[in-house]
Design a protein that fits this description.
The chain has six helices and two strands, in the order αααβααβα. Helix content is about 50%, strand content about 5%. The chain has one domain (about 10-154). It is globular. By secondary structure, it is mainly alpha-helical. Strands 1-2 form a two-stranded parallel sheet.
Length: about 150
């Protein structure tokens, strides 16, 4: 499960569809509708939010907004109606790590998108998150390929 902290606009089509599926799975976990993935590290920041159910709903709405821009048909009825929630803090190091992790995937899966994004200097966060100083988050499961790229690029 990967719940990206970077803006969903950076994802290729496979990545965006996977994010939608994984976000729905995360929502089911947070709503107590499934027994699996309860302790998945990607859920920690949602569990720590003011209201985890509202936070995951807000997260999914932003993913659906990106899907709408691409004329994809994600079923918004799968997101329970909820109010606004506070932004969740995510560290600069986490944002850089995730972006490099995405680049390593795009290099193989979508070389043209990789070329388009590889020189990007300012990385936007998913609208639910606000960037703060710091390294890679403690909950992140670090993949060596992304850290190697991170070391050489930033």
């Amino acid at each position: 499960m990967r719940l990206w902290s970077i803006h969903p606009g950076y994802l290729d089509s496979k990545g965006l569809v996977a994010l939608w599926r994984e976000g729905l799975l995360a929502q089911n976990v947070l709503l107590g509708k499934t027994n699996g993935y309860k302790n998945h590290p990607q859920l920690i920041r949602f569990k720590d939010a003011d209201n985890s159910k509202t936070a995951i709903g807000s997260y999914l709405r932003s993913v659906a907004d990106e899907a709408d821009k691409r004329d994809y048909k994600f079923n918004r009825e799968k997101i329970p109606k909820s109010g606004e929630c506070s932004l969740i803090k995510v560290s600069e190091g986490q944002i850089k790590y995730e972006f490099k992790h995405l680049l390593s995937k795009l290099k193989l899966r979508d070389p043209s998108r990789y070329q388009e994004l590889k020189s990007l200097e300012k990385i936007k966060t998913h609208p639910l998150f606000t960037e703060v100083d710091g390294g890679i988050e403690e909950w992140e499961v670090v993949h060596q390929t992304a850290t190697n790229i991170l070391d050489s690029h930033f």
